[in-house]
Specification:
- By secondary structure, the protein is mainly α.
- It has one domain.
- The chain is about 80% helix and about 0% strand.
- Helix 3 packs across helix 4.
- The longest helix is centred in the first third of the chain and has 38 residues.
- It is globular and about 55 Å long.
Length: about 170
């Protein structure tokens, strides 16, 4: 290898330092992508539902959404070799799937038949704050020890709040 004069060596970038900058930039780019893709997908969901409701019923839209999601996630589960849930967990998984996915999506789709996509998006995104306020109200405003210990009361209010919003 030929030695370069000192002036040329000083102007030449250090390959180790150059690789660390490339690595940092790659992480920053991936972070930005990881932030914006879910935001874009979530934001486009409500107008997409509104458009789909022109041709399909609310139940059909919910079914089509979760058929697509199931195919994608099944492929991911096979590639990652995810283990199957325990047999004793299936009844709870079915209950959560019915209430958390089926009812939620059918009600959301039905609601979007009467309100705009923007209003539906606002209502859905504000439910977290409303649930937090109700939980705070139960814990702080009612200092009764029985209410503090009774989480089922808070959970019941959360379910009722979600039902009111939807």
């Amino acid at each position: 290898m030929v030695a370069l004069p000192l002036a040329q060596q000083a102007n030449r970038p250090d390959p180790i330092q150059q690789n660390s900058y490339a690595g940092e930039n790659r992480v920053k780019v991936l972070t930005v992508i990881a932030i914006f893709i879910p935001i874009l997908l979530w934001a486009s969901t409500f107008p997409a539902i509104r458009i789909a409701l022109v041709a399909y019923t609310p139940t059909e839209v919910a079914l089509l959404r979760y058929i697509v999601a199931s195919i994608v996630l099944s492929g991911y589960a096979v590639v990652k070799q995810m283990p199957m849930p325990r047999l004793q967990d299936f009844p709870l998984i079915a209950l959560c799937g019915f209430t958390g996915f089926t009812l939620y999506n059918v009600m959301l789709n039905t609601g979007e038949m009467t309100v705009s996509a923007g209003v539906a998006s606002f209502i859905i995104s504000s439910q977290v704050a409303i649930i937090a306020l109700l939980a705070w109200f139960l814990v702080v405003m009612h200092s009764n020890a029985k209410i503090r210990k009774c989480r089922s009361t808070q959970e019941l209010c959360t379910v009722l709040n979600a039902t009111l919003i939807i």
